Structure formats: C-alpha cells, structure tokens
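Narrative of activities, Objective 1.

The group set out to show that a structural description can be obtained from nothing but a protein's sequence at a throughput compatible with the screening campaign. Below is one input-output pair from the validation batch, recorded exactly as produced.
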Amino acid sequence: MKTWTNAHRLWILLAGAAAVAVAATVTALVLTSSGPGKERALPPARARTYTDQQACLLTGERGLADPAVAPVWAGMRDASAGTHAKVSYLAMAGEQSAAAAGPYLATLADRKCTVVLTVGAGPDGAVPAAGPKFPGTRFVVVGEKAVGEKAGGTGGTADAPGANVTAVPGGSAASTRKAVEAAVTDALRH
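Output recorded for this entry:
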C-alpha cells in the first residue's frame, strides 16, 4: 500500500484540491443566490462624482477644531453637496500673521482652488495682497475682518477691495453656515 500511495501522491493531491475547489464554488453560489425568480438588489452607490472645481479653506493653527471654523466648514460641505465641488482645508502652522498667511494663500491658489475662504486674523489679513496676485481665484473672507462689504456681500471688504473678494460677516453659527454656503455656491457658478 505504501508503494501505491507514493506512486500516486500527485494524483491524490490534485483530486483533493479539485474537491475543495468544487465545494468552495458551490458554497459561494448558494450564499450569493437570492432564490429562484428573485433579482439581487444592489445597494445604492455611495461614491460622488466631483467636478474640477475646488473650495479651499485657510484657517489658523487650530484648524477645524476652532469654533469659528466649524460653521464655515459645514457651509462649504453644504455647497459641495449642491455643486459637487471638492472641499479641503489647510491650517496655518507657526506665526499667525497676515505675512505668514501669504504663502498659504499662494499655495491654495496654485492648487487651482476655484474659491479660497479664510477664517482668522492672519488668513483674513493676507487677502488684500493675494487678491490682485490671483485674479482667477475667488476669495471669501469670513468673520470679524469681513466688515464694510458692499451690497450683496461681494466686491470686497474695507481692507480688501477687489472684484474677486467676497465678505461674509460673522454671526450665529447657523447664519454663518448659510451665508458661506451661498457665497461658495455663487463663487463656483461664476
């Protein structure tokens, strides 16, 4: 018997592997079939197709943890749901001044952000210099620096005049969220 087993070892192994493969195939078919006469229902797709437009947010060093940023980020996400634009944010590191924020705004403009939002003294203060340098980018200044805006909230601020700058004054979280959504949606459509 030992001689026969050694001589036919390869055939025995192949037969065992074939049996395992058949059993696995039958099990998979039984588990995935939904029964006779029933179509298998697939769950709805969760992937969102995005456009080439981007709305980017520049914040202070606390990023999304800053309470002033939360309604802005929520408004941006709301606008993204309606426009299918991508949203992202960049938090400043180090010194929180307008001079230090300049390179961050340039980075966002170079990344082809369609609209760049700013929250905080440093980011807001850098918009007057960045606006003219990047005329193809729309800027939205949100919060305390957004004073002196023209009718409709567009056309610039007292510190940042320009056709590509929009001001959204701070207020309650709900009003800021709605105002940001409207400003981003408007900027993405023009």
